[in-house]
Amino acid sequence: MSAQPVARRRRLAIWIAAVVAALAVVAGAVLLWMPSRYLPWDTASFADVDRTALSPTQAKVVDLLEAEHSSQRPGTFYSDGAKEPWCANFVSWIMREAGEPFANPNSGSWRIPGVYTLREYYESQHRFEPAGNGYTPKAGDVVLYDNEFRLGQHTNFVVAVDGDTATTVGGNELGKIRVHNLDWRSDGAVVGFGRLDS
Fold first, then answer.
1. What is the pLDDT of residues 10-26, one digit of tens each?
2. Strand, helix or coil at 23?
3. CB–CB of 143/157 below 8 Å?
4. How many Å apart are CA 64 and CA 148, to the nearest integer?
5. DSSP character string of the chain
6. How far is it, in rounded angstroms, from Cα 189 to Cα 25?
7. How many angstroms separate the CA atoms of 176 and 163, rounded?
C-alpha cells in the first residue's frame, strides 16, 4: 500500500475528529446557554402545593394546571384549533377556566395568543410587575419571558415559590405542558410577571 492513501486517511480521520470535537463544544455551550424549560430530559413532576394557603382563585389555577399537566392535550386544544406557538393560548385558557378570563386588547376575545400582547394586557390592567423591581411572584401569577438571543418570547405560570426559586408550569415547552424550577432573579429572559390579583 502506498504512503499517499494512508496519509490521506490519516488527514481525513484527524479532520473528522476535529469536527466532532468542535460540535461537542458547540453542543455543550448551547446546553449551558439554553433555559432548562427547553431541555428534553428536564421532566419534573407536578409540585406538591399546599392549597390551604392559597386564595380560591389561586387554588383553581393550580388545580387546572395539575389536571392539564396530567392530561397533556395538544396545543390546538388551547388555541381554538389554530396551529401556532401556544404558550400564551395555554395561559389564556387556564385563566378563562379559572373564572378570570382575559380581554384581548385587539379582538376582545378571551384568548391572547401572543406574549407581547399578554404583557400589554397586564400593563393596561396595572398588574404587570417588571423584573428587578423587588416583586416576589405568587401562585397563579404569569411569568413573561423575552430573550431574542435565546428562544424568543415565552410565558408560563408560577405554582409555588421557595425563596428566589419558583416552580412554573407552562404549555408549548417542547410541545408539552411541563414543570420547571425558575430562579427569576438570575434568569435574564424574565421580563416580569402578570399578577393574578384574585
1. 877 777 777 776 665 65
2. helix
3. yes
4. 30
5. --HHHHHHHHHHHHHHHHHHHHHHHHHHHHHHHS-GGG-TT--PPPP---GGGS-HHHHHHHHHHHHHHHH---HHHHTTT--S--HHHHHHHHHHHTT-----TTT--S----HHHHHHHHHHTT-EEETTSSPPP-TT-EEEEEETTTTEEEEEEEEEEETTEEEEEEEEETTEEEEEEEETTT-TTEEEEE----
6. 23
7. 27
Spacing of C-alpha 48 from chain mean position: 19
Measured over the CA atoms of residue 152, residue 155, residue 156 and residue 157, the dihedral's sign is positive
Name every residue whose Cβ is closer than 8 Å to that of residue 117 and which is 6 or more positions away in sequence.
88, 104, 105, 106
Structural contact between residues 168 and 157, judged by C-beta atoms closer than 8 angstroms: yes
pLDDT tens string 103-117: 999 999 999 999 999
- Give CA 162 to chain center in angstroms: 18
Q: For residues 140 and 160, is the Cβ–Cβ distance under 8 A?
A: no
66 pLDDT more than 60: yes
144/163 Cα distance (integer angstroms) = 19
